[in-house]
């Protein structure tokens, strides 16, 4: 009792001291994000513990209120999670998404690094032109860029036609609806996410250091491995995380470019939700996906803090 | 530069050139084929505008485009206001309780897989409806709330980095001269960060126009956005009308990006003498 009145009076005096305008500016974005970003995860977690039923909404309530005896029962089930671990299918989907995401992240790094390096080392006018050229596709619709590849990779698409006309192949190869197309799609659409952080760190790098290394007898590849790479490390980490995290949950690319056997967890979640209409199961899939990604996401956040 | 570094840069230039080719070849092919008179994507039937005509006569696409534009405009504007507040709070308000929490919440939507964001927002809206009766059903409102939430993060990051690179002396001088916090913000800080807010708004606008996954989760019947219509069309195969639509969108985005670059450059030039 004493304690709570004490608390209240300090709270009131604290509130009076705080500038109301300042409080408003702080609270509005915080409350918005709490309501529409943080709370939703609690809701997902709650629903992942319920059972699917044929009703509106299609999941069982967690609390059941018994009017005659006037007590509430808590009804939760771990069934969805158990099912996730029992069924090979889900485990395979998680593993295959992580595999696809890792491999495409590495390819993206190899494709993006030279581009970032050349941009960082070019003259200032050239640099802004090249940067604009990298950013432009990033601003262009993601969906349409994936769609552009459908036209190229089709059986009678441009790539097959080109390869056949120069005699590289005799008959069209199946490229669309394969894992190859999924890798290509991820590398293509996420390339700007890799180039931009790489560029930011490489731009700050002192070229004299490389020259110094070479003057001291380092071969180009040695200078690259011993000087450039360590200096570019923050950019490499940031770029890889920016590609890897969304790639794990990717839905559009496997849906449009992948085949029916391309297994990715984002697509599984989508089907669970829209086709099977099993909301609790979709929630459980999302929660486990989130747990898989918590490490990388936290790492990304800490990296951001250091960069700022 | 020594000869060895020159040799290295030749290799680098070649790979970077190949990289740029990789980035642009599909887009260029798409633009060229949007003018193809033939319905078959690979058969060139001469230049024609017929797919553009077909596009504008397609009511489903036109309606969806209108819905998308409205949603993008409102969400970008809301996100610009909220994101500027968040960015300002994070870089200018000193320490306060919950700052790390806010910083985490601001950056997390940037990396969260879209399927998770979409699913969690939908489940929230359904739970809210059964608890408070609002939002009644899914549609424009729920899409706008969802888009504002993830666009806010982008605006906050852009504004925050702009504020971080900004010389605080002008703000300090105004404070010394007795400006109230509110007038300090509206007369000094806001004009200085306006290019960041404009580019944040443009970025939000395009992100909202582009979003398929989140919108699919939180939209209701009769509120299909443009990406949702494109996706359902494209899934059935390559449609020439979509080539025309893509070309128009690419042209629009190119103009917007050029405008943004010019605005940012002009602003940087104005500031040069201060630094």
UniProtKB/TrEMBL annotation, chain A:
The keyword Transport applies. The chain crosses the membrane at residues 20-43, 100-120, 129-150, 180-199, 279-299. Residues 94-300 form the ABC transmembrane type-1 domain. It is found in: Cell membrane. Keywords: Cell membrane, Membrane, Transmembrane, Transmembrane helix, Transport. GO terms for biological process: transmembrane transport. It is a multi-pass membrane protein. The keyword Membrane applies. GO terms for cellular component: plasma membrane. Pfam families: BPD_transp_1. Belongs to the binding-protein-dependent transport system permease family. CysTW subfamily. This is ABC-type transporter, integral membrane subunit. It comes from Marinomonas mediterranea (strain ATCC 700492 / JCM 21426 / NBRC 103028 / MMB-1).
UniProtKB/TrEMBL annotation, chain B:
GO terms for cellular component: plasma membrane. Gene3D superfamilies: MetI-like. The keyword Transcription does not apply. Its main location: membrane. It is found in: Cell membrane. It comes from the Bacteria. It is a multi-pass membrane protein. Residues 65-263 form the ABC transmembrane type-1 domain. Keywords: Cell membrane, Membrane, Transmembrane, Transmembrane helix, Transport. The keyword Transmembrane helix applies. InterPro entries: Bact_Polyamine_Transport, MetI-like, MetI-like_sf. Pfam families: BPD_transp_1. The chain crosses the membrane at residues 12-35, 71-90, 102-128, 140-163, 184-203, 244-264. GO terms for biological process: transmembrane transport. Belongs to the binding-protein-dependent transport system permease family. CysTW subfamily. This is ABC-type transporter, integral membrane subunit. It comes from Marinomonas mediterranea (strain ATCC 700492 / JCM 21426 / NBRC 103028 / MMB-1).
